[in-house]
Design brief:
about 750 residues, 3 domains, about 75% helix
Length: about 750
């Protein structure tokens, strides 16, 4: 691991920016008001800023603004309501479950609504710290609102100062995730590689890249000043995104039979050289990603071009020395891999140029795009809320789970002499998630992080007595906690525990021991409650709904294939439609893989059809990769390779995919057999065999270069992809049949 590169990437990332922004927004009101002897008011304002900061998720600015405004209104109203009912225990115990249920259920409207619900519950819980009377309730609510407005204004000021920064950081993150995909791809060129593990790593990095792409897509195509292309920066960001997406597709489209390549060229050293070249390209993408995040210019490594030329010479030498009639096909694969590498290198050179934000690049003609083709919209209709009021809805079960667990936590705090009992409520609300596996993981991380943070805090305060040093360390812990909260929850919880202990020590050093003990005890009780209720009211297990993800990915792949395959029979090629179809396939594949990974974390008794599901995940990943390869050829298709001979194979392949969807969805009427004229399916083989025979005769005559070689190279690569997709569709249909039998 290159630790310097990891450090630079983190320093320029939106994760650190978010950590610094939230720390300043939360800490500054308390410090300023404390300086003027209004510490209690300052602390209340900081709590308001903390609540609003929860909704500060990366996204288009107008979405963030809407979230801030709604959150400020909600925390103000809830603070007033909670202030009046806080001292009436029976009334609070009655309304708490209602609030918990409602603010958990709004999660049906997406991630930002989920954050808004958590912020609302946090306000309710934190109001149990104090009991206000009369006008003090209103004053407390106003101070909370003031803190929330302060945080809102801070974010708007930072945005107006650097409106493109978050988009640049997210785009840089996407570019680096593409680099990780290339590294995973490079592992396939190792002679002793474990192909199962390598393909699994390839799938995981592809899914990670897809998630990073989704954020970049939202920021670019839902931000008006970028989509309108009113500035050079906006235009360049759009072009960089489109080129990165094309590069990602190109890297997916170079999928070959690596075992066969190793058999023929493993000893020649050329595959090892290919791997080194791919790793160089991945390093270049990292540099571009970091440059985009940091707002600086990156420089292309000219040695790559020389490396590619050397590989072409090496390939030519192999042709002259070992090319014969028996290995023509693998030489074709080797050449197309190198062509793909060359294509990626060309795109990387262009991406380097984008980091300069040169005005000349901004005047470059941008292809016509419709933002609606890249983004999806979240429904905000009340109907969606009411439709989910059913035990068949996972969010409904989650809301009930939080409701019952929170009520139990509150009653425990009231019935037993537990210090800082609100921590139990906080732990329950934060740990419980809709999915069993995430709740289980968060539970472990919360307990572990609390213990580690408490231990470090005790040691630190034992040796450090200076309050200024403690305050500085507290601020650093806050920055770290909010920077890692999206990427490493364990580290985040550890640092949160640290800064909470340091904060209470500064407020009341004599009470540190009880706070230290309460933090551990309360977090433990909350974790136990979360664990119990995750079993008593279990979520919908993944095996109950994973068939939906499987059928969706097969159907999306079918539509993607149908769109691309039609080009080879004479239909027009639409790059925009291809992007949309590819995006749908990748999103469906990512959803299926996420569901499968969650399933692996569930109890063994709930992991039904695990073998068939794993096979379907891997097979659909291979299917998507081969369709992407076919799309690569379709984009540059010459008229010579357009013919009706593809049609029978296309129709049959689609039939297998359609039948697979029917089997997965357990449709009542399913066609038992797919009948076809195999002679029609093999029309492409006949053409290839004819060309192969001509080429073999040419080789016997010593003709290394010829028109036949050019035609055969392209045509065989295309037909290979068609037959790869055909065979995988048959495999998926067979696995789907087994899935149906054991379901």
């Amino acid at each position: 691991m290159d630790y310097l590169k990891e450090y630079r990437s983190f320093i320029y990332s939106h994760y650190l920016s978010e950590g610094v922004r939230k720390t300043v927004g939360i800490l500054l009101p308390a410090l300023i008001m404390g300086h003027f002897n209004f510490l209690l008011i300052g602390m209340t304002m900081s709590l308001g800023a903390l609540c609003v900061s929860i909704t500060d998720n990366p996204g288009p600015i107008h979405h963030r603004v809407n979230g801030f405004i709604v959150c400020n209104i909600i925390i103000f109203l809830l603070a007033i309501i909670t202030g009046f009912i806080n001292h009436i225990h029976w009334l609070f115990a009655l309304l708490l479950p209602l609030f918990c249920f409602f603010f958990s259920m709004i999660g049906v409207y997406g991630a930002r609504a989920t954050s808004l619900g958590i912020a609302a519950l946090l306000v309710i819980i934190l109001q149990t710290l104090h009991r206000y009377e009369g006008l003090d309730i209103l004053y407390n609510s106003v101070y909370l609102l003031a803190g929330g407005i302060w945080y809102f204004l801070l974010c708007m000021a930072l945005y107006s100062f650097r409106p493109y920064k978050l988009t640049q950081q997210a785009l840089g993150d996407y570019v680096q995730s593409t680099a990780n995909y290339l590294r995973a791809k490079a592992s396939l060129y190792i002679e002793t590689v474990d192909y199962d593990k390598s393909n699994e790593q390839l799938l995981n990095t592809q899914i990670d890249a897809q998630h990073k792409q989704d954020l970049a897509t939202e920021l670019i195509f839902k931000t008006r000043n970028i989509v309108k292309e009113s500035t050079v920066t906006g235009r360049i960001l759009v072009m960089a995104y489109l080129d990165t997406t094309d590069l990602f597709e190109t890297s997916m489209s170079s999928h070959q039979d690596y075992k066969k390549l190793q058999e023929h060229f493993g000893k020649s050293g050329i595959l090892t050289e290919y791997r080194e070249l791919i790793l160089l390209l991945a390093d270049e993408l990292d540099e571009i990603g970091i440059a985009l995040q940091g707002g600086r210019k990156s420089v292309y490594n000219e040695n790559i071009d020389a490396f590619i030329l050397n590989e072409r010479e090496h390939l030519q030498q192999l042709r002259l020395s070992i090319l014969d009639a028996a290995n023509v096909d693998v030489f074709i694969s080797l050449k197309h891999i190198l062509d793909s590498i060359d294509d990626i290198a060309t795109r990387i050179r262009t991406l380097h140029q984008y980091t300069s934000y040169d005005k000349k690049l901004g005047r470059k003609k941008l292809q016509s795009i419709d933002p609606e083709d890249f983004i999806s919209h979240q429904e905000m209709q009340p109907k969606l809320f009411f439709d989910n009021l059913s035990f068949r809805s996972n969010i409904f079960r989650h809301s009930l789970r939080i409701t019952l667990a929170a009520l139990t936590a509150y009653l425990i705090g009231q019935l037993f002499p537990i210090g800082h009992s609100y921590w139990i409520l906080l732990t329950v609300v934060i740990i419980l998630k809709p999915g069993y596996s995430l709740t289980k993981k968060r539970n472990y991380q919360r307990l572990t992080g609390t213990l580690i943070g408490a231990a470090i805090g005790a040691l630190f305060l034992y040796f450090i007595k200076d309050n200024t040093s403690i305050l500085i360390f507290l601020a650093l812990c806050m920055i770290g906690a909010y920077s890692f909260i999206r990427t490493n929850y364990l580290i985040s919880v550890t640092l949160i525990t640290l800064y909470v202990l340091l904060m209470f020590h500064l407020l009341d050093a004599k009470d540190f021991k009880s706070i230290f003990t309460d933090r551990i005890i309360d977090s433990s009780i909350g974790s136990v409650l979360a664990f119990i209720f995750s079993y008593l009211l279990s979520p919908i297990w993944e095996h109950e709904r994973i068939h939906q993800f499987i059928s969706r990915v097969i159907d999306d792949n079918r539509q993607y294939y149908q769109l691309i395959a039609a080009v080879f029979t004479g239909k027009s090629y639409s790059k925009t439609e291809t992007r949309v179809a590819r995006k749908n396939s990748l999103v469906s594949l990512a959803n299926l893989s996420d569901a499968f990974n969650q399933m692996l974390s569930e109890p063994k008794s709930k992991q039904k059809n695990i073998q068939q599901i794993h096979q379907l995940v891997v097979s659909n990943h291979m299917l998507t990769s081969h369709i992407a390869t076919l799309a690569y050829y379709a984009d540059k298709l010459q008229r010579d390779y357009v013919m009706d001979d593809y049609a029978p194979l296309i129709i049959l392949t689609r039939s297998y995919m359609e039948r697979s969807v029917q089997l997965i969805e357990a449709k009542e009427s399913i066609e038992e057999n797919i009948l076809t004229d195999q002679s029609q399916v093999r029309l492409l083989d006949k053409r290839i065999n004819t060309l192969m025979h001509i080429r073999q005769e040419e080789l016997k005559q010593g003709k290394i270069e010829s028109e036949t070689r050019r035609i055969l190279s392209q045509f065989k690569s295309i037909t290979d992809q068609f037959y790869f997709i055909y065979k995988i569709s048959i495999d998926i249909e067979k696995i789907s049949l087994k899935f149906k039998d054991v379901a």
